[in-house]
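Subject: Interface between my chains keeps coming out wrong

I've been trying for a while to get a sensible model of this assembly. When I model each chain on its own everything looks fine, but I need the whole thing in one frame so I can look at the contacts. Pasting all components below, labels as-is. Any help appreciated, I'm running out of ideas.
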Amino acid sequence: MMTAAGLLVLSGCGGGGDDASSSRPAESASKIKVGFSQIGAESDWRVAETASIKAEASSRGVDLRFSDAQGKKENQIRALRNFITQGVDAVILAPVDSTGWDPVLEEVKDAGIPVILVDRGIETTDDSLYNTLIASDFTEEGRMAGRWLAEKTGGDAKIIQLEGSPGADPAIERKNGFEEVVDQHDGMQIIASQTGDFNQEKGQEVMEALMQQYGDQVTAVYAHNDNMALGAIQAIKDAGRKPGEEILVISIDAVRSAFEAMQAGELNCTVECNPLLGPMAFDAVERILAGEEIEKQTVVQDQLFDREGITEEIVASRQY
Amino acid sequence: MTFAVFVVLFTAMTLAFEGFGTPLSSCYLLISYAHVGILAMGMTFVILSGGIDLSVGTVLAFTTVFIAKAVSVWGLSPWVAIPVALFLGAGFGGGMGFLIHQYKMPPFLVTLAGMFLARGLAFVVNIETISLSEHPFFRAVSSWKLYLAPASFTPRPFLKAEAIIFLVLVVFCLYLAHMRRFGRTVYAIGGSESSATLMGLKVARTKILVYAFSGFCAALAGVAFTFLNTAGKANMGIGWELDAIAAVVIGGTLLTGGSGYVLGTFLGVLIYGSIMTGVGDYSNLGSAGQRISIGVLLLLFILVQGLLPGAGKTRSS
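Reply #2:
Try treating it as a single job with all components included. I did that and got this:
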């Protein structure tokens, strides 16, 4: 039948399975099998993270099973279960939100499979449900952005905040860190704060609406990620104003398009949030499978990039 | 026939993908798609009656956040919060059904408005996610397993609460559709509402009940979902009404109404779930490849179903 043929072709492309009857091949005889449950492909940062993990798996000879959840929590829960049935040796999880993971992580733990969280943490009643977390300190990223803005404006700014996806750790913490600094300066005030869901289209949409309401008051825009900032920049231009000059724009992630926007003078600064977590993630996998003790959390170091300091070499050296 | 299509799909995936088709992964299919299945059961009756219900995804979200808030913040017992939530879902659905029938408004528009209303109400109840992981009732139910084989059989298959709820609902819906006047009236309305009215069937009551039942199923799916994902989240369930409708249509029910089977929907849920699971978790395709494959497979299956002999068989009432 057409459908059966179609499916067999698909499995050929994907390199899905070799042996239908085995459930768990002997670990010593074959490659390490790792399941990676990724949130989706909603931003440049996310795509870079996926590429890094895939590249690292390939260079270490790891059999990687990749699942893109298209932004949906229930797909990630399902993916973890299907990693159990595929007999993976470890799971790498980038959680789309922070709550409700206990039931499925218990099943993964019962199956004896270690869990490495990347890029975001989770709330859980039982810490042993995951082995380690590899992520940036999002609160510090928010603080770095806040401090830069305070210095640049002398502590005087009317700010529009574009938040990340509701319930996501990065969004919550980047907001907290930034607002911590804002609270320390009387002249700094957040006049509006809405979610742009970490993507460019929504960021632009939301900014367009906010420009209508606050266009004459706003002096700075703080976006939780570069993609939303790019959307905001477009909205500001559409409203006939100059982003980067009349209205400062700052964001987080430091993806390539942010550097291009800085070169064009439209983005003022971006805080790096390194998505190239592949090496660290697989280091953790290997150490755990070798039975080593591992730190509960590894913090990825970030740095801030100011528009003034950008040179051609820096832009060329950006891997993502 | 839908069943043949399912068998071919399932067999092909089992052969192609290591780990697919085992007892455990089949159980996971039921568990992972229980909430879609519950939505689809209610949706079946609505579509059979010639209507549609776009609000079910957001009513599900409302239910999760309502229950989470009731139990964690207002201090109610789950044994109170859950029945209240189910009643609210049914009432909401019934309200929409009343508007649809009484004022002859298109179901699409009324339930679309209902969709936004329910989402808004969910945000009013609580904007942030409320975790249920600490609550003893939800911890217990969400980790409860019904093992289907002795411990010596590995990997050991099991079902969980949400899957049991789904299966019980399927049996109930079979009974409702084929052995109660309600079911027969639904088919009659879907076939021709004017004829049904002329025949003296209780059209008004049935139409309202159909939407009330769909609302009830949406709330029930919300309850089942709190066992899958122990949290109440107002922002959950975006687009799930489409998943439910897809399962119903794949199962052979016509969107025009009057034709289709509850069992068809059950198979539709399994087919839809298998496609999503096979492509999403087993095929190892990249982000683009997965989305393209799902689209292609869904199209193929609708086509194949239309071309098979015995397809489009209607149930005469």
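Reply #3:
Confirming on my end. Chain A touches chain B through 60 residues (CB under 8 Å).
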